[in-house]
Amino acid sequence: MPELRRDPIHGGWVIISTERSRRPSDFAPEERKTIGGFCPLCEGNEDRTPPEVFAFRENGTPPNSPGWSLRVVPNKFPALRIEGQLNREGEGMYDKMNGIGAHEVVIETPRHFETLSTLPLKAVEHVLLAYRERIIDLRRDPRLRYVMVFKNYGVSAGASLEHSHSQIIALPIVPTRVREEIEGAKNYFDYKDRCVYCDILRQELRDRRRVVYENQGFVSLTPFASRFPFETWILPKLHQSSFELMDVSLFPLAAEALSDTLQRLKGVLEDPPYNYILHTSSSPEEDRDHYHWHFEIMPKLTKVAGFEWGTGFYINPTPPEEAAEYLREAK
Amino acid sequence: MPELRRDPIHGGWVIISTERSRRPSDFAPEERKTIGGFCPLCEGNEDRTPPEVFAFRENGTPPNSPGWSLRVVPNKFPALRIEGQLNREGEGMYDKMNGIGAHEVVIETPRHFETLSTLPLKAVEHVLLAYRERIIDLRRDPRLRYVMVFKNYGVSAGASLEHSHSQIIALPIVPTRVREEIEGAKNYFDYKDRCVYCDILRQELRDRRRVVYENQGFVSLTPFASRFPFETWILPKLHQSSFELMDVSLFPLAAEALSDTLQRLKGVLEDPPYNYILHTSSSPEEDRDHYHWHFEIMPKLTKVAGFEWGTGFYINPTPPEEAAEYLREAK
């Protein structure tokens, strides 16, 4: 069973993954690792993944058989396990709990060589709708406090499978960075009686220098204090604390914003590795006024080194105004 | 002039490095980057760095000439600049200041192919004494609030020069992660009237499972909630908030602990890339009781992906007890 351990100083939690414990010889230098060979995520190989928990399928095709356009399956090597009671205990001065949670893979397409930026808009919309379904379902489990949706694209962004996919991890705690962001937004609201993200949208749409793309429902922009070159956020214009509360009628516009932004990044940066993370509320009711869900996309262009690890203080060599200009002109 | 910008939500600062602005074509894929060729840090090339601010030299050799065993020079491409007044201003809802600060390079040896783990103990002690000198000097500047000492070893840990060196960045703000760590330690002290790091030392020295190395003055251990495989901390046994306050008589023991620990990591992990960061107090007097300086060494073995960025929540595939066992048996 994986174990969750709490740092006694700053209070952040770590998953210690005992089951897939890696010995020194398992950390091969990067060059030796290759992606390729048999793909368990391709159509026809449904028996090589755990049974699906959600899918978009042609009418009449049974689960775990061909005929799907998107599948969600449990991760075969999960960081956390869904079975069992949540046990919290101490170990001297330290705090730990067993690794209860969910770890799922969203297989975005049955075809091996498609990517999120080349998929038709309808397929991107299905990816977003799958996120929604899984968040709503996982939030019903009272042991779980936060559902994190993210995508690693490219080996150097951490993807271990080439086939286009995203991941969902449901956690028994609210992670520190998520809590800090929501608290930061709350402090701003307490002081100004306005949502900080709504204020950002207003200022950026007036200023335009950092706006990359806009449609009726969504805006892509490079944030004022971008930590990474070409970091890009996608925000809904309508204030809403939680992604899964978004009206279904807005999903086509969200898909268009995500697809268009990823295509621009791909064009300007020659298909860069990237990570994106869905930032959404941990308790939609409580955070209703002050939090505003959004996507953060981080192309992996620079190496994050000691300085950044130690301080949370980033050095970004590309001003976001310049990045936005490149991205506006792309396509 | 580089610019410091504050994230309006969580309050962290970012350096936007306008002067060495990088365009899309500057982010070449990793394979194309090579280290090699002319080295500006080697003995004999003193004119290729900015003038030294500190050095250990043979008696009688003039500054910026051969005859040194260690030099500290300003970074030729600094992330921050020391000249000028600190100007803080707003830009609509955003906060920024100009990039005042210092960015220095500690050249640890005159010889190109030596590393910190192969240097004689006396040379390692000199590296630590150089950190001390520079911290004491930089702390005299009232514009600067924090001095960060760190080392990137190996290309994938962010080193852009092969020649053995560390870096020092002095900042006009206390970075968020540093503040959080010090506040975490303060909360623990307020509750228990004991230093959290002293408590960790007591529990770990009794338990021994995570202890890697020990001498009269220092302990190396893999922390209970290790974020990374083989993450290793070096702590002084004597409680002290700030590195630069350490008695000079303890420097040989500190050098031995650092050298020994790096040699063990090198032996077990085949000369891994790593980052280390000196964690020390931002205001030694104020933090006297609750903060305890230490080194954190993080071998760069896994890729930090979207999940970690989004949450500050790490998945570590090697339990620290196992890592410590490998490291104890090494050498």
Descriptors for this entry?
ten-stranded antiparallel sheet, four-stranded antiparallel sheet, 15 strands, HIT family, subunit A, 23% strand, 6 helices, alpha+beta
Quick summary of this structure?
The structure is a homodimer. By secondary structure, chain A is an alpha+beta fold. Chain A has helices spanning about 120-140, 175-190, 195-205, 250-270, 305-310, 320-330, and strands spanning about 5, 15, 55, 70-75, 90, 95-100, 100-105, 145-155, 165-170, 210-215, 220, 230-235, 275-280, 295-300, 315.
The amount of beta strand of chain A, in percent, is 15-25%
**For the terminal residues of chain A, how far apart are their CA atoms?**
47 Å
Q: What's the CATH class of the largest domain in chain A, please?
A: Alpha Beta
Biggest sheet features of chain A: 10 strands, antiparallel
Category from helices, strands and their pairing of chain A: alpha+beta
**Helix percentage range of chain A:** 25-40%
Strand order of the largest sheet of chain A: 3-4-7-9-8-13-14-12-11-10
- Got a strand count of chain A? 15
Domain count of chain A: the total is 2
CATH homologous superfamily of the largest domain in chain A? HIT-like
Average pLDDT for all residues of chain A: 91
* SS field, number of helical segments of chain A: 6
Q: At the third CATH level, what is the topology name of the largest domain in chain A?
A: HIT family, subunit A
Coarse shape of chain A: globular
Low-confidence stretches of chain A: 30-34
What is the chains' assembly state?
homodimer
Order of helices and strands of chain A: EEEEEEEHEEHHEEEHEEHEH
